[in-house]
Amino acid sequence: MAEVITMPRLSDTMTEGKVSKWHKNVGDTVKEGDLLAEIETDKAVQDFESEINGTLLYQGVAEGGQAPVDTVLCIIGKEGEDISALIGGTPAKEEAPAQAVAEPAAAEPTASAEVPAGVEVITMPRLSDTMTEGKVAKWHKNVGDAVKEGDILAEIETDKAVQDFESEFNGTLLYQGVAESGAALVDTVLAIIGPAGTDVSGLTSGKPAAKSDAAPAVSEKPVATQPKEEAVVASSTGDRVAISPLARKIASDKGIDISAVKGSGDGGRIVKKDVENYQPSAQAATTATAAPAKAVVNFVAGEDTETPNSQVRNVIAKRLSESKFTAPHYYLMVEITMDKAIAARKEINSLPDTKVSFNDMIIKATAFALRKHPQVNSSWAGDKIIHRGNINIGVAVAIPDGLVVPVLKNTDHMTYSEISASVKDMAARAKNKGLKANEMEGSTFSISNLGMFGIETFTSIINQPNAAILSVGAIVEKPVVKDGQIVVGNTMKLSLACDHRVVDGATGAQFLQTLRTYLENPLSLLV
User: Cβ distance 3 to 57 under 8 Å?
Assistant: First the structure.
């Protein structure tokens, strides 16, 4: 009998997983222990092995797609076995953009509808980088009106201004998806254009959006929009050029001289497509060379690019935002004399097969300081504070996708050599996505060190559920005062971010004083 394999929970904080790679395809033979797929969690990418024998009959998540924990990942059974009752439909597709879920059903074509020949579905345009929805301030074309390319369809009110929206197609306006003074999300249906008489009922799921009962915004407060006569603007050569507001904006963004663009709209008016299709001509270059005093230099703007967020990056963003805006952070800073620590490290590293970093020394000193100040080694839990029995220090490691925090369990019982070996091993595996989920769980305190990058001081966001995080800066050689004399010394700045719900100011300060004592007198760690 076929077995349904669900998306596994590979970490205690995992809510969904992404299939980075399938190692078995539908129809392949699968044996117990075979690698089925690589699953990207909120912390790492992990191999996922089969626990049963059979044939892979179904993949519930496409490669690169993701699904919540406990939903169908795949089905394994006997070759040719009927599994229709287990899947109840087609395999899950790659994850759709989050915004698609929020779009109102009444504003989009039905899923099964096919767009008739010659028909164009016009969606609400994104007219500014911060625009999420637009309001139809005025329709310039009604249903049944003939529309030509370059005609103004409507005036769209964004979060910044009111702009003309032009048609890019010829035909008849068959449908208005938003009533005048109504609003709709970006990328939802604004209008449908096509041959007169075409039936588009299959593309719409109802009537246009109801007109807002409220008075248009212009009746309450004047909208900062350009008067129609300002569609004729001055070019860099001093001539007057007829151009639509949208085309003018695109030209400005791309650094295009509008006097060099030939308009295809009514009366030679420059419209959106003219600017988007514009290519500098050889004649323009020749003219610029012949008359340098009046030459116009066209700068080609660099194109924006997009990189889809990895699951790790999304979770980092979510967790840090939650921490910053839920935990009341405050910061304590101290400057530590590192001369004795430098000497102690040199002596330790003179031993055979020993290589200890300053970061290793800081980790050990921090673990000892947490022993004396258990309140800093605690967590907020709503109606109570949890005092952690073990000291498990998380060490922030930068990876291409962002940041991970491998954990040194029972750090206070580790030697310098054990700390050094563990940090090097986990940091190397973190950068290759080789860490296991359990190696990044259970931290009770965290350390972030940017000293190796020359950063002298900085503050960090608390890695919840920890109540504090230590930020470590670079060791700097500078003049210091010792016994009333100015001498050359080595200092390092530490910053402690604390959750004020758990760690009071005095407690945080006492912890830093203890940490300073350990670092300024390294032999005290051996007592």
Answer: no
- Do the beta carbons of residue 344 and residue 354 sit within 8 Å? no
Contact 164, 195 (CB under 8 A): no
Q: Taking Cα atoms as reference points, which of 105, 107, 111 lies closest to residue 175?
A: 107
282-304 pLDDT per residue, tens: 444 444 444 454 555 555 678 88
- 500 has catalytic annotation: yes
Q: How many CB atoms lie within 10 A of CB 157?
A: 23
E-assigned strand segments in 71-179: 72-77, 120-123, 133-139, 146-147, 152-157, 162-166, 171-176
**Concatenated DSSP letters of 21-43:** EESS-TT-EE-TT-EEEEEE-SS
> Residue 62 is encoded by which pair of tokens?
């496409």
DSSP 248: H
Task: With H, G, I as helix, E, B as strand and everything else as coil, classify residue 165.
Answer: strand
Whether the upstream peptide bond of residue 125 has omega within 30° of 0, thus cis, is: no
Task: Identify the sign of the CA torsion 312, 315, 321, 323.
Answer: negative
* CA 30 to chain CA mean position, Å: 36
* Residue 277 backbone phi and psi in degrees, to 5: -95, 0
- Domains of the chain, CATH where assigned: 3-87 (2.40.50.100), 99-213 (2.40.50.100), 228-294 (4.10.320.10), 311-526 (3.30.559.10)
Residue partners of 525: CB distance under 8 A and separation at least 6 = 364, 365, 368, 518
Percent of the chain with pLDDT over 90: 46
In the beta sheet, which residues pair with residue 449? 472
Q: Which of 23, 140, 329, 500 is catalytic?
A: 500
Query: Could you read off the pLDDT of 4-17 as tens digits, one per residue?
Result: 999 988 776 778 88
**DSSP labels, 273-325:** HHHHT----HHHHHHHHH-GGG------PPPP---PPPHHHHHHHHHHHHHHH
